[in-house]
Structure formats: structure tokens, C-alpha cells
Amino acid sequence: MPTKKVKPEQSKQRGPIEGEIQSALDALKRRGTKATRDGMARYAIPSEKAFGVAMKDIQSEAKRLGRNHELAEGLWKSGWYEARTLAAYVEEPARVTAAQMDRWCRDFDNWAICDTVCFALFDRTPHAWQKVEQWSERRDEFVKRAAFALLWGLTVHDKTAGDEPFVHGLVLVEREAADERNLVKKAVNMALRAIGKRNAALNAAAVKVSQRLAASTDPTARWVGKDALKELGSPAVTKRLAAKRSK
Hints:
mainly alpha; Serine Threonine Protein Phosphatase 5, Tetratricopeptide repeat; 2 domains; 14 helices
């Protein structure tokens, strides 16, 4: 079937950003391999619409392209796994709206894209804390995972936040710890552990939450608490927190 020709005026109007999007997609496609695509299945990442590009190559492409809000939106809309991953790295955090976060979050269909977008982009936006609160109450598996992946990311990347929002995060962790879905409970567990490693005061608060969960009659909540306690009271974490306190 012959390719439909684009009228000159349409090309002039839409050409620049459309061309950048297509160029980025072509670059990703060239870097893709069957071996990488086949390997995605081992990590429960759908490969039906994936080129099979290694993360290091996606990040390399992102450095080449730089930050570009319009490009990020176009890449996301393409639906390709690597394009959406790339979008997380080229998007401009300050230009991300709350509505865009909701829209992208609804598109999450695997843990990898969920976590990458939350860690590389969403936790740097002005709406991050608002979305932790909102998404933690949602039923959708990937939306709820995003809430706790985002909370987890904030423990690392929000350098200016005090302890209060993280203490509230522990309330959300305790409230949702009984969600038995694997992708959710693991994100809840990781958020709990991450909060407990931020500083000594939060460690003490996280340990208390973990102890209550470990004593729960609910098997999922009990696992979340017991698993977190293994790390939060470990010599490695104790040593790291002591070093932070001495600075």
C-alpha cells in the first residue's frame, strides 16, 4: 500500500517536533536486539511493543537529546516501551502537570515503566507528594504501586523535605500493607525500608511501624513488617545512619 503523502503546509506546521520524535524512535529501533527483547520476559516486562533496547542505551540516547517537554509527550504517545522509558529522562519536571501524571500513570502496564517514571521524573515534579496521597487510595495495581514507588523515590531525591511528610508516608504504608498483590506489597515494603534509611529519627519511626506490621494477623502485612525489620536494624543501616548524624 503506497505511503500517503503529507501536504507541504502540514509538513511545515508539524514537521520539527514530529521529525524529532521519529528520529528518536528510529535511534531506539537501531539499538534494539532480539536477545534483549526476549530477555524482558524473564522480568515480567511485556515485549509485544518493545524494540529490545538496554537501559544504558536508552539513557545514552536521553543525554544526546536533552530535556524536551514536547518530545517527551510524543514519545509517550507512541506507546513503545523504550520510547516511554526515554520520555521519563527527556521530560522537563517543572513542566509536568498533575493531569499529565495521572494520564501517564493510567498507561502503566508493567512494574519497570512504573518505577522508572516515578524514580527518574515524577519524584522531581511539584506534584509528587500530592500524587503519593491520591494514588495510595486507588485500586488499580499499577497506580497504587506508583504511589509507593514515588514515595520511595522521594526519600532519595527530595533533599529539602523535613521528616513530617515521610512520617505521613508511614501512615499510608501501614494502611496499605495488607494489599496482597505482589507488585503492590513489594513497593509498600520498599517505601517503608527507604523511609527508615533516610535518617535516625525516621528509622525509629519506621521500625515501630514495621514491628506493628510484623505482629499483624494479616500474612501480607506481617511479611512487609518482618522483611523491613531485617534491613532497618541491620549493622549496615545503623552504621550509615550514625555517619549521617555525625556530619
